[in-house]
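Q: Got a minute? One more chain.
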Amino acid sequence: MNANRHRGSTAGVVVGVLVLALVGGGIWYFTSDTFRTRVDANMKQATKWTPENIAADPKNYLNYVEAETEKAVMSLKASKIAVAQNRAKLTQMRDDSQTQVSVGTKAVAELLEKYKAADAANVWPVSFNSQTMDKDKTKLTVVSLTKQVSAQKETLTKLQAGLQNLDNQDGKIDQAMASANDQLMQVKANRGLLEVNSLTTDLKDKLVSMNAAMTNVVGVASENTGVVSLSDLTAQSAAQVDSTEFDKILANSK
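A: Always. Here it is, folded:
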């Protein structure tokens, strides 16, 4: 019984010492610049592929680069597909928008001509698109169609910008894919050099430079490429009209 109490007491003392050490270390980490710098340096050396760690274990470093690059390649291929899918959607939306602008512009011009002729002769209603329209409805329709055409033109500008953005993303993906393939070739070549040569300074420098190149490839692969919000490109056409707006449209058509 006494022995158990003794062991329990000893364990409690050990736990207490560890807690105090952790608390004390935490305080030192945040209050001492030199202590924090040393801890950070040791953590980096223990968890990162530093030049020293690369030199110490070049074979496993090459395995790490190869695995990370292959994962990046898979991500880039997925992004390539996403870009193609979004381009198809935006291209269709652009074509539809261009058609609506063309049809709408023609309809406004035709209806304005009917309005002018009817107003000059004071002969109402007019016939348009299988409908009969009195003077007020004609004015309402002209203003409404003009607003819709204007909204579609804004949409068309956004769609063209979206397609340009996809082209830029596609270019970045192609560059990253080329870099990734070059990286994988370098991995194979450097494996061969390691088999026949000891780690020279030149080879160590090559391996270290691979780290930065791989980081860049992985960074591009992790971007949210190919994603364009179609809802952001949806036009909002106004339904409210008034005589002032119509008068402006009529004046500009003369």
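A: The radius of gyration is 35 Å.
Q: Perfect, thanks.
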